[in-house]
Design brief:
Layout lengths: L1 E6 L4 H13 L3 E4 L12 H13 L4 E6 L3 H7 L7 E3 L3 H11 L3 E5 L4 H13 L6 H12 L5 H6 L4
Parallel strand pairs: 1-2, 1-3, 3-5, 4-5
Helix pairs in contact: 1-5, 4-5
């Protein structure tokens, strides 16, 4: 499996540790940065390319880290085709993939490397169930990524 990973300064050390663990476990890893710890950097500069790579299929899943994990989740969920979430435990890491087809795991940089690795391994081992009720729900969520027909029709009237 090909994994993309990205962070800003708030998760730099954790990203480096996770990349090593992923490679040791046999995963192909694409590093979207940051490539050095720069306290003034901005997470969108690194996670937007990660999100686009996940959405296009260039990487199969992603891991994104910032200080809290919240900012990267908010940013990534603006990208069509990305389903990103800050995950607190193994149940959510597994269930998020099985039920909601989660494709980017978000973590806070202060998460211990041991817990982060446990969450990443659980996330990567999980498979989307493709159960009809989950597919139906995801179609409704995906519909939010498209502008409403009324908005498109009325845009010329402004």
């Amino acid at each position: 499996m090909h994994i993309g990973i990205a962070t800003d300064h708030g998760g730099f050390e954790l990203k480096e540790k996770l990349m090593d663990l992923l490679r040791e476990a046999g995963y192909a890893v694409s590093d979207f940065g940051a490539h050095e710890r720069v306290p003034e950097d901005d997470y969108p500069d690194f996670v937007i390319p990660l999100g686009r790579a996940v959405a296009s299929g260039k990487v199969e899943r992603g891991v994104a880290v910032c200080g809290s994990g919240v900012g990267v989740a908010v940013c990534l969920n603006k990208i069509s085709g990305v389903r990103a979430c800050l995950v607190p435990d193994r149940f959510a890491a597994r269930q998020g993939v099985e039920d909601d087809d989660l494709n980017v795991l978000c973590l806070g940089g202060r998460t211990t490397p041991e817990l982060a690795w446990e969450l990443v391994r659980t996330f990567l081992a999980a498979k989307f169930s493709r159960a009809p009720r989950h597919l139906r729900r995801l179609r409704k969520v995906a519909a939010l990524e498209e502008p409403p027909e009324d908005a498109a029709a009325n845009s010329h009237q402004s």
